[in-house]
Amino acid sequence: MVSVPEVNLNSGKVIPTIGLGFWLTPEDQAANIAYEGLNAGYRLLDSARIYKNEQGVINGIARWLAEDPEHRHRGDVFYTTKIYDTEHGYSETKAALNNSIEKAKKIGYIDLVLVHSPQSNYEKRHGTWMALQEAVDSGKVKSIGVSNYGIKHIKELLAYPDLKFKPVINQLELHPWLTRTKLVEFSKSQGIAIEAYSPLTHGKKLNDPDLVRLGKKYSKSPAQILIRWSLDKGFIPLPKTVHTARLAPNLDVFDFNLTNDEVKLLDQKDEDLKFCWDPTVYPLDNEKREDA
Ligand SMILES: NC(=O)C1=CN([C@@H]2O[C@H](COP(=O)(O)OP(=O)(O)OC[C@H]3O[C@@H](n4cnc5c(N)ncnc54)[C@H](OP(=O)(O)O)[C@@H]3O)[C@@H](O)[C@H]2O)C=CC1
Ligand SMILES: O=C1Nc2ccccc2C1=O
Fold this sequence. Notes:
The chain is of the alpha/beta class. The longest helix is centred in the middle third of the chain and has 17 residues, at 122-138. The chain is globular and about 55 Å long. The chain has ten helices and ten strands. The chain has a single domain, classed as Alpha-Beta Barrel (TIM Barrel). Helix 1 (27-40) runs parallel beside helix 2 and helix 7 packs across helix 8 (222-232). The protein has an eight-stranded parallel sheet. Strand 6, helix 4 and strand 7 (141-147) form a beta-alpha-beta unit. It catalyses: isatin + NADPH + H(+) = 3-hydroxyindolin-2-one + NADP(+); (R)-pantolactone + NADP(+) = 2-dehydropantolactone + NADPH + H(+).
């Protein structure tokens, strides 16, 4: 079985370098996919409050841990959830966190809570961050971060007068057709690691001739080439599948590397193409038009 390497976060914790995504994984399948994902070697599981499958993912983790308590420990697994836009604000986020922490009771704590996107306003984003900082102080959440934050949203957050914990992660849509070089470099320059969502382009680019050619060269599938590109860029990719037969192949990417030239060739496909939403461009309060 593949053993996934880890990298350091600015919180002093470590995170696996690849994770399993759970967007659109139905709640009644989430426990089994989480359990089989852990059996296949995944150690990072990425849920969110809006995915409506947090409990399933946690049940799958708890089942896997309980099966072999001598060899499997809570610290072997990294569980992420996210606070959605409609739950921004101090009291709203407190309530959301309490609910997610309650769901996670079986596994003791949540490794990472992300602000799902910056789509609210300064006061609400700030209140959310204060509530997240308190959750870290309580020990129920180990690290906190952001998702879909643009450079301006990160700068705003880093300037909070009562900032105690910097974000450990910025989770962004990233693949060769969307490389976001400036945002990635700025995040990294602030000690913020990058998670790549939609790393498989929702399956839309798997027939790309360069992916097919590189797949033949390395005896890998185009999906595995995309995941390897993400790893070679220093991202933490989060491929999603509900098919157990795809779990192991999507993780079987640690026995080869793309060359620098091959990474650059794939980088050149960048055309700012998004398969998901793009809150990184969401206006700050002072950018909002009166009549908008
Ligand atoms: N923070 C945010 O705003 C966002 C976060 N995310 C996170 O990132 C994760 C991944 O992104 P996501 O948008 O789901 O998209 P992905 O790029 O991971 O694509 C998932 C799609 O690819 C298919 N697929 C998986 N493996 C293969 C394979 N080997 N060959 C062919 N097709 C394959 C899946 O189908 P099937 O399931 O049928 O196998 C599914 O339809 C999410 O699940 C979520 O955890 C995603 C979007 C936004
Ligand atoms: O995974 C996700 N897919 C999405 C699509 C639209 C809005 C949020 C999300 C996710 O978090």
